[in-house]
């Protein structure tokens, strides 16, 4: 299945497109003004690029795909994005800009990131970051879950 030719109701808040054989992210998802939770996993998507036109998105799950590149474009202002899951992908490079945090759109509510290659991001996280998960290859805490306070200190 290359694309998903379904027109979703504009009032939809939660979408789970798991194990559906998609090659690309459906372009019309960006028009769902009430979308709060989006999960796309178990697909063959290699490039996860989507431009949202609303700040309603709270959780984004792109886990278990062969994704190599992520690019989220979010509208200006503070977003409601709280959780981004990118685990079990083949991501080549990741930055805060890749997940929508830039000079116009700020992910200051983001508190939960789950990412296999997180080491280069830690110094750039918003102060509200509370949870970091990692695999045993990158850090001496070897896969343990760590909580961080709003001041960035280990709890």
TrEMBL record:
Superkingdom to which the source organism belongs: Eukaryota
Q: Which InterPro entries match?
A: Leu-rich_rpt, LRR_dom_sf
Q: What is this protein called?
A: Uncharacterized protein
From what organism does this protein derive?
A: Candida orthopsilosis (strain 90-125)
């Amino acid at each position: 299945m290359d694309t998903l030719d379904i027109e979703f109701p504009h009032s939809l808040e939660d979408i789970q497109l798991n194990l559906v054989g998609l090659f690309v992210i459906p372009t019309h998802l960006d028009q769902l003004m009430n979308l709060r939770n989006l999960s796309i996993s178990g697909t063959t998507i290699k490039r996860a690029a989507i431009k949202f036109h609303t700040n309603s998105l709270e959780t984004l799950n792109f886990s278990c795909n062969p994704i190599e590149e992520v690019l989220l474009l979010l509208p200006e202002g503070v977003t409601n994005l709280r959780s981004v899951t990118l685990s079990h992908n083949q991501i080549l490079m990741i930055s805060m800009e890749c997940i929508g945090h830039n000079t116009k759109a700020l992910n200051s509510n983001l508190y939960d990131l789950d990412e296999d290659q997180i080491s280069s991001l830690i110094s750039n996280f918003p102060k509200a970051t509370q949870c970091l998960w990692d695999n045993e290859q990158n850090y001496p805490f070897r896969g343990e879950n760590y909580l961080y306070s709003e001041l960035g200190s280990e709890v």
